[in-house]
Amino acid sequence: GGSAETLQADYVLVAIGRRPYTQGLNLESVGLATDKRGMLDNQHHRTAVPGVWVIGDVTSGPMLAHKAEDEAVACIERIAGKPHEVNYNLIPGVIYTRPELATVGKTEEQLKAEGRAYKVGKFPFTANSRAKINHETEGFAKVLADAETDEVLGVHLVGPSVSEMIGEFCVAMEFSASAEDIALTCHPHPTRSEALRQAAMNVDGMAMQI
Questions:
Q1: Around 178, how many Cα atoms within 13 Å sit in the side-chain half-sphere?
Q2: Would you say residue 14 has pLDDT above 90?
Q3: How do the domains of the chain map onto residue ranges?
Q4: Which DSSP category does 190 fall into?
Q5: Is 156 a catalytic residue?
Q6: For the whole model, what pTM was predicted?
Q7: Rounded Cα–Cα distance for residues 202 and 208 (Å)
Q8: Before 190, cis peptide (omega within 30)?
Q9: Span 90-204: which CATH code?
């Protein structure tokens, strides 16, 4: 959204995305058809053909291994006649760069589009003891919570080892935790995870370590 810039770099990484691996599987022989992207439609992992189920990269949703694993469990449970659902709103995403990026739940843009009022708590790793000790202070933790109920709606992390820390918020959000729930939970010191607590505290402007 800003003015154009020219950046000097030694390398450029071009990522063109992924596509389902369905071409050449002769799916039409059993009566299955893909959409223009090569994806198979499904209703709770069932295809239009009885006895044929789908999970993972060949169907809708993010193309992530842990999403496919969750779908596999749900699919097997359903084949066995048991109810099971995948909460697609809480599939975490991680980019394994340095610093790492990790996210789960809604973004600010999505919440604005929904017209949902929310609060933001943010905390920089420059103020985190463990990150400073290890000389890896790039990044921040950001928590988005409902303006009325304080329920955590989205979490976005940039920094050291955030791929290992996003799971805390996945669990919290699965149980509809509030930002206050995280803020009141004791975290060990000195650890990077303290940044998560401080960001949750800062939803109401109560961070202590800045």
A1: 11
A2: no
A3: 30-86, 90-204
A4: S
A5: no
A6: 0.85
A7: 9
A8: yes
A9: 3.30.390.30
